[in-house]
């Protein structure tokens, strides 16, 4: 008995359907490639554009005080911020293109960029 | 010799489950011996036994055999109650649920291969969810999803074919 005879019509459907699903999941999960730049904005203006290669810290001044941004190879984060709820600090390390941390009270944001431009949830 | 107060009745069903679970444990040991390029990518040969049991003896027997296999397999390989045990348990529970639903598909169209693939996807889905919720609470876990899903498809198809081959042969009249 050949192996192919063991497959019923629906099995082919399941195999092809799952293969299509797996194939289409690749761009969903792997979009944008690696993080290679970070953009720090203050009041909507670009404060600094950094290559994510070296270890660096930036002090960004805002209306409430100073926001401390740390950059490491492949990732960036907001270390401290004077905002009351600390949302952007709690976000932790940003490492994928399109990720963004916004400290709204102090009007500072950090965004990760890759080689290709990707959309984040804010774009929709 | 005095008779024990507690008498455990061992039915034929119990013996059959025990034998099949032993076969499944044996296959999990083979599984563990196969080198894997990535933790989590495993052939899951023991699922062949689950599929055959499901087709021949029903869902309840399949649950027993899989449950005993996870327990005994983890004891033998030394990861009982370690993170790997809970990953394995979650994957098994979800794939059993998937099998419980998928076995109601029309048998003329959907054979063991379909069941195997669906169970494999449920298995890896459950493991990824548990890993995300508990072990690595970061979305970075999902970066490996295409790899895991591809492996689930390939190994699910192979295991399903083997199970279909076994099921195509006449059933053994009685287990020893």
Automatic annotation (TrEMBL), chain A:
A Pfam family (short name) is NusG_II
- List the keywords (alphabetical): Membrane, Transmembrane, Transmembrane helix
Q: Which CDD domains match?
A: NGN-insert_like (cd09910)
Q: Which stretches are transmembrane? A: 12-30
**InterPro entries recorded for this chain?**
NusG_2_sf
Keyword Membrane, does the record have it? yes
User: What protein does this entry describe?
Assistant: Uncharacterized protein
Automatic annotation (TrEMBL), chain B:
Q: Name one Pfam family in it.
A: Hpre_diP_synt_I
Any keyword Transmembrane? yes
Which terms are listed as keywords in the entry?
A: Membrane, Transmembrane, Transmembrane helix
Note the coiled coil stretches, chain numbering. none
Q: Which InterPro entries match?
A: Hpre_diP_synt_I (IPR014535), Hpre_diP_synth_I (IPR010898)
Q: Which sequence ranges are marked TM in the entry?
A: 17-34, 46-65, 77-101, 113-135, 141-168
Q: Does the keyword Transmembrane apply?
A: yes
Under which name does UniProt file this protein?
Heptaprenyl diphosphate synthase component I
